Amino acid sequence: MAESAVTTGVRAEPGQSRALARSLTAPGLIAIGLGATIGAGIFVLTGTAAAQYAGPALSLSFVIGAIACGFVGLCYAELAAMIPEPGSTYTYTRASLGRFPAWLVGWDLVLEFAVAAATVAVGWSGYAQSLAADFGLRLPASLAGAPGDGGLVNLPAVGIVLLLTALLMRATREASLVNGLLVGCKVAIILAFVGVGAAHLKPELWHPFVPDNAGLFGTYGWSGVFRGAAVVFFAFVGFETVATAAGECRAPQRDAPVGLIGSLLITTVLYVAMAAVLTGLVPYRDLDVADPVAKAVDTIGLSRFATVIKAGALIGLTTSALTALYGQGRIFFAMARDGFLPEAFCRVHPVTRAPVASQLVIGLFTAAVAGLVPIGILGEIVSIGTLLAFCLVCATVLILRRTEPDRPRPFRAPAAALTAGLGILSCLTLMASLPAETWIRLALWLVLGLAIYAGYGRRRARLS
């Protein structure tokens, strides 16, 4: 660990109580990336984005989001290989900009990862209830949705978060094996949906491909395509989880870039194909439902296949929630290691090497959010928090290239100034496409973070 402190610029801790197990390889990282990425973005938010913003041009929205993520992904790959420590964007900012910017980034990542897991859990609940209804099983309305959705608490969403938290508290290797198996099933089912759906397409549903603007910015037209890209950008959040796992890789300088870029390329191809099939099966205005993929399968008329797809969506959402919770636990671990949070959050179990306290607190917080907040609000909050973090990643690459030009870089982002600059510009453009109330929620969250830093984090970090 002492050598790690020299090479990464972040403080190492003595003793094994703060050392995470290094058990992950490149295939495991790609599985983590796919598990985190292919979830609520494709199984839930695609319907909202098509019905309210982009129309049949939803696939174009995914392409725009993927281009922005490509620039950011190259920057992530450089930093993850150069600073293979848990904490992702937080750790990179801590190493390059210092304590206060690092705290803001870490606080923003709480918004990104924990709320992302909550969003996925709400989507999981929608598909689970839809599948149960096929067998005549229904929850009371009071336990089937958040207060804003006509209920009192979304009990299935709470339950899946707590179950996955228990799994993550056991060991990274066990969670990785479960994730890998579920990801294989998920990708197979998505390919089956694309293949079967392509045989039943109605090409007339793609015309006009970009619907005329409805008179408001972001409601169809090209502004709608960009707002749709900002909303479905949530679908690309997961690849960042690969960076949070760099500190648990056997060969992070080699495996982290492969995991980041590989998972991003695979998910982009799947997303564009799935969006095209989805809008070619169902009129885009009818896709504003909690389970749009299930609705599309129902139009084909294959009831057994519909059951398989719903089960596949549940698998996809499970892995997405699992990896989001995993990523947030590692963010808390890194922040506690630097003194911003209580020391208990950076202690790991002596046998499993999992950060048990960190994972437990994140699980309880996420379960509360999933049970009480509607999915529409959650999705937009995650998108803006993620885009802000991505801007900071690109900025960190530019800063370190100038301040530490001779530092070893096992992977170098090509044309760094251009790549990072386009990454920042792309993310800012998508952020500008989001509604004003989403910006207000982000500002309030950051103000709360500033208050915690002033009252606790600054003094603790200085002492540590």
UniProtKB/TrEMBL annotation:
InterPro entries linked: AA/rel_permease1
Record GO terms (molecular function): amino acid transmembrane transporter activity
Transmembrane in keyword set: yes
Organism superkingdom: Bacteria
Entry keyword annotation includes Transport: yes
UniProt-annotated location(s): Membrane
Alphabetized Pfam families for the sequence: AA_permease_2
Transmembrane segments: 28-51, 57-79, 100-124, 151-169, 181-201, 221-246, 258-282, 302-327, 356-375, 381-401, 413-432, 438-456
Chief place where the protein resides: membrane
Signal peptide: none
Keyword annotations: Membrane, Transmembrane, Transmembrane helix, Transport
GO cellular component, one term: membrane
Membrane disposition: Multi-pass membrane protein
Name of the protein: Amino acid transporter
Organism: Methylobacterium tardum
